[in-house]
């Protein structure tokens, strides 16, 4: 008897909550539903044009001391998986003679206890986790970051 009462109560709650939700949904017109697709749900919008990767081969300055440098060349189709690391075919210590690429820094050969390993540390294996190429894209949000060198200079100029 007791359990039957409980079940009835639960059904009532479910029914009333369900009813509230469906009445809310029904009152929002389709075109007002916020969606990142920027198009009605039943159409396929044209995707925006792909941005061009900057392929200048000119190293970029870093904005802060430990910034992973951005990649100044295309990386389309460069395979990085369990078996192959295309990046290391140029950037590994033993390959830079042939490739003339800058060697990955020594930190890439260190484990987290700062021991030097004979080969690339697993934690530095997936390069694009930290290094990214740049696009020729319009800045979406302004940036008023001032790096430490400019702050020091400004401070020195005051005295
Ligand atoms: C075919 C050889 C080659 C391959 C493959 C390659 N790179 Fe490079 N990379 C270079 C060379 C050469 C430079 C020096 C600048 C230039 O010429 O583009 C460079 C520059 C860089 C720099 C800039 C270093 C700095 O000090 O500013 C980064 C970061 C980098 N590469 C990351 C990568 C990553 C990540 C991959 C794999 C997704 C990769 N590279 C694959 C040859 C290569
Ligand atoms: C966990 C983040 C991380 C990963 C993963 C990583 N890097 Fe780096 N990389 C950095 C940072 C941070 C620096 C700059 C400071 C330093 O040298 O440690 C750097 C520096 C470099 C440099 C410049 C070296 C120099 O002396 O100027 C190159 C080239 C580079 N990385 C290539 C690679 C390649 C190729 C891979 C993949 C095999 C890779 N990195 C993986 C974070 C990373």
TrEMBL record:
InterPro entries associated with the record: Multihaem_cyt_sf, NapB
Post-translational changes noted in the entry: Binds 2 heme C groups per subunit.
Sample GO molecular function, one term: metal ion binding
KW Nucleus (keyword) present: no
Pfam families recorded: NapB
Superkingdom, taxonomy of origin: Bacteria
Residues that bind heme c 1: 73, 87, 90-91
Record localization: Periplasm
Recorded family membership: Belongs to the NapB family.
Name of the molecule in the record: Periplasmic nitrate reductase, electron transfer subunit
Species for this entry: Shewanella loihica (strain ATCC BAA-1088 / PV-4)
């Amino acid at each position: 008897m007791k359990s039957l009462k409980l079940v009835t109560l639960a059904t009532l709650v479910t029914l009333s909550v369900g009813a509230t939700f469906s009445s809310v949904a029904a009152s929002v017109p389709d075109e007002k539903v916020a969606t990142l697709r920027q198009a009605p749900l039943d159409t396929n919008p044209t995707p925006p044009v792909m941005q061009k990767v900057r392929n200048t081969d000119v190293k970029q300055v870093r904005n802060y001391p430990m910034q992973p440098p951005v990649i100044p060349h295309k990386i389309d189709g460069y395979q990085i998986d369990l078996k192959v690391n295309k990046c290391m075919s140029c950037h590994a210590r033993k390959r830079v003679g042939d490739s003339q690429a800058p060697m990955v820094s020594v930190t890439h050969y260190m484990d987290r206890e700062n021991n030097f390993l004979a080969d690339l540390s697993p934690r530095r294996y997936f390069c694009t986790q930290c290094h990214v190429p740049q696009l020729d894209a319009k800045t979406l949000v302004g940036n008023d970051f001032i790096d430490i060198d400019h702050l020091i200079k400004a401070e020195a100029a005051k005295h």
